[in-house]
Amino acid sequence: MREIATSDGFIRLGQFLKLANVVESGSDARALLEDGQVQVNGEVEERRGRQLQRGDVVTVGDADLRVG
């Protein structure tokens, strides 16, 4: 599991996916979310604006990313 550091421990899902280099743009993030390819804490998430906090785990494909 890879930990991705955030400045204050809170970040929106779309921004987190860009910070983690999973996607290059917000539209790429939207496509992944609409296809059901992103999970937050084990549940499929479709909202790009979902607020994440320190300790949340985002899964994309076989990659697990923890908000740090």
From TrEMBL:
Domain RNA-binding S4 as annotated: residue spans: 11-66
InterPro entries noted in UniProt: S4_RNA-bd (IPR002942), S4_RNA-bd_sf (IPR036986)
Pfam family membership, one: S4_2
Keyword RNA-binding in record: yes
SMART domains: S4 (SM00363)
ATP-binding as UniProt keyword: no
Keywords: RNA-binding
GO molecular function, one term: RNA binding
Protein name, per record: Ribosome-associated protein
